[in-house]
């Protein structure tokens, strides 16, 4: 038990649902000395914004995405729903591992990785896709969803959270990139004329 964390983070009586969920999420990361109450756990795993998102799409698309949502929960009961990059998504052990969206022609599944679809390339041969999305207009088979989730989870397990943070920083430079200069630039005088050296 992490007593110092508990002393610094007391959950007040009568706390709102949002406050209780936030406290328990942090508790699981910092201490985890007791399980989350079952009723609260179910609410923690659901994201109301996903219901709002699904309410705005066509009935056919709604049915496809709702079925995919149920399959993900059935295959990975401990997954938590969230919104990532403005689309419905699913978080597992702190990492976003799947998401979906409605498109003008159907639906898209996002593994939130540039390599997952390559890993399961044989399973998705008949589907339209990009590097980061699998497009579909009929229900994805449960076996395919399982393979997509398994591939994404195993990718994430190969990297530590610290490596994830570092990879985010390495792809986003804090300063603009500049052209490399030669190690010894030529000496120039007025109006760019070369000067003699030595």
Return the string of H and E elements.
Answer: HHHHHEEEEHEEHH
How much of the sequence lies in strands comes to 5-15%
CATH architecture of one domain: Alpha-Beta Complex
Instruction: Kindly report the CATH topology of one domain.
Output: Aspartate Aminotransferase, domain 1
Round the mean pLDDT to the nearest integer and report it.
Answer: 81
Largest sheet: 6 strands, antiparallel
Give the % helix.
40-55%
The top level CATH class name of one domain: Alpha Beta
- Strand tally is 6
Q: Count of helices?
A: 8
Strand order of the largest sheet: 1-2-3-4-6-5
Question: Which features does this protein show?
Answer:
single chain; 198 residues; alpha+beta; Aspartate Aminotransferase, domain 1; 6-stranded antiparallel β-sheet; globular
Question: How would you characterize the overall build of this protein?
Answer:
This protein has 198 residues and is α+β, with helices and mostly antiparallel strands. The chain has a domain at 47-158: Alpha-Beta Complex (Aspartate Aminotransferase, domain 1), CATH 3.90.1150.200. The chain has eight helices and six strands; from the N terminus they run H-H-H-H-H-E-E-E-E-H-E-E-H-H. Strands 1-2-3-4-6-5 form a six-stranded antiparallel sheet. A hairpin with a 2-residue loop joins strand 1 and strand 2 (87-92). Helix 2 crosses helix 3 (38-45) and helix 5 (59-75) crosses helix 7 (142-157). The radius of gyration is 24 Å and the shape is globular.
Secondary-structure topology with pairs:
Blueprint: H1 3-8, H2 17-30, H3 38-45, H4 48-55, H5 59-75, E1 80-84, E2 87-92, E3 95-102, E4 107-110, H6 116-119, E5 128-129, E6 134-136, H7 142-157, H8 161-171
């Amino acid at each position: 038990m992490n007593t110092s964390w508990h002393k610094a983070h007391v959950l007040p009586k009568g706390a709102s649902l949002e406050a209780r969920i936030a406290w328990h999420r942090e508790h699981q990361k910092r201490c985890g000395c007791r399980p989350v109450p079952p009723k609260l756990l179910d609410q923690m795993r659901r994201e109301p914004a996903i219901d709002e998102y699904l309410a705005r799409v066509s009935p056919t698309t709604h049915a496809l995405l709702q079925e995919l949502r149920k399959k993900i929960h059935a295959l990975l009961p401990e997954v938590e729903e969230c919104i990532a990059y403005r689309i419905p998504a699913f978080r597992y052990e702190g990492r976003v591992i799947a998401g979906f969206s409605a498109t003008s022609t159907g639906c898209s599944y996002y593994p939130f990785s540039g390599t997952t679809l390559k890993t399961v390339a044989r399973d998705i041969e008949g589907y339209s896709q990009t590097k980061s999305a699998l497009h579909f207009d009929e229900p994805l088979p449960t076996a395919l969803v399982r393979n997509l989730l398994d591939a994404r989870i195993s990718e994430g397990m190969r990297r530590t959270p610290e490596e994830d943070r570092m990879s985010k920083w390495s792809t986003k430079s804090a300063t603009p990139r500049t052209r490399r200069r030669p190690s010894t630039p030529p000496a120039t005088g007025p109006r760019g004329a070369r000067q003699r050296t030595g």
